[in-house]
Amino acid sequence: MHAAGGPLIVRSDASVLLDVRHPDAEQARESIARFAELVKRPGDLHTYRITPLSVWNAAASGLTADEMTDDLIAFSRYDVPAGLIDRIGTWAGRYGKIRLEADGEQLALAADRDLAAELEGLGLLPEDGVPAPDGRIRWRVPPERRGEVKRELTRSGFPVLDLAGYRRGGQLDVELKAATSSGAPFQLRDYQERAVDLFCREEAGAGGSGVIVLPCGAGKTIVGIAALARLRCEALILTPSVTSVQQWRSELLDKTTLTERDIGVYAGSERQVRPVTIATYSILTCRNSKTEDYRHMILFSERDWGLIIYDEVHLLPAPVFRMTADLQAKRRLGLTATLVREDGREEDVFSLIGPKRFDLFWKTLEAKGWIARVTCTEIRVPLDPSAAAEYAAAGQRARIRIAAENPAKLRVVRELLALHRGRQVLIIGQYLRQLKQMAAAWDVPLITGETGLDERDRLYARFRSGEEPVLIVSKVANLAVDLPDAAVAVQVSGSYGSRQEEAQRIGRIMRPKPGSNECWFYTVVTEGTKETEYARRRQLFLAEQGYAYRIMRMPETDGAARTEAAGC
To answer: What's the predicted TM-score (pTM) here?
Structure first.
């Protein structure tokens, strides 16, 4: 029976409306966010969508179809459509029913008879199925097609549980230290230990590939390092930037028994291949022309890697996806703060890297003090009169940039700097002209893609030490920049409606803070333009995590701002 007057309105098209005004809304949100994705949030009714992929990821983490439908029924305002209950049962029921297993030197795909006709009807399998003694139907799969078959079946609605196992890889003598290089005690947090356990479990053959989802500041790198120490094998670590390469190297030296001779860097001008090698996605996808081969992809076969770690897996470029399809005999670990991909390739992450193995609500970590408590504020400012005429005459694409570079934002940022004087502040933006104007106005250092690596490191170090209390950064600082004392982030422009960018930028300030353990995230947008729509979309992922944005409207002249609460 459904709970009368619940906060959910469940519809037959697999969408779910959450009434955030209801007293049980937060509990309902936490329940359905495990198997549904937030897609929009106009006003007080937030729209979630249940998809095959969201159900498969939930099933991979141990959630059953009955548990999913029970949650819907428990919180639904009206009867849950029977057709949707049946679909959830079908989607969840497919997970684990199609298995890829070792068969001597070959692989075998095995499925129950009731799925066999559907699978053969897809035309994706290399031959007709053969009945097996266990009553299932089996198809031989060449090892080189392991990734391709998994990807194409998943795209067709049939997820494959890969139980074919992995090559051990070159052995590596590595352990976690009990104390860091500075002498501070070191041990995994309970949730980090749990994440490593779920990734490495092999008692049922289901471990060894998959994605760990944790917010920035919660120690995703530590989870990757701990998995490496648990497996004790040679590893290739792929990251989005040279800065993150150096941070991985520093963490490995600080928290494991590996030495400098064990760790190679394959990025920039360095080409070291060692038992643990750290490379950037950009160097792997570097080529002189569109017809040239990716010459650095040879790195995947340079050593007998037993583990490949994909840092910030939501940014995995298409050429690395294609290579990963051929690497299914190696263990693969994806790390990310959000599985959202703006290109819609979440299914390829699921099939080629693996399902979501571990996820934890950000609010849960916040409540335990593992990440800072964040206050999110969206500040809407009117378009400056000096830009109004240009905006009116511009095309749609140009208007987006004019709104983003609105000169009225400078006054808001100046007031925020005064409000948070004494704290370390990051100003983050998309457009270099805007950032350079702010840097010049306040004599604040600026880091962009044009800034040399040595100069970046020097400025980051000065910011960490407190010598530079304010730092302006372009999108180069979206990812993997360790600035633990940053307590305030002011976002003045961004990449349209990118949910993943919003999550990454807020992550720059969420590392635990001494004392009150607080941080503040501001996004400044131009009222009455496309920016406000983009802002709503950017905030969707954080809304799933239980965060709300306070809305402030700045008047056209100096004066008190109007404030309103806006649940995400």
So the answer is: 0.87
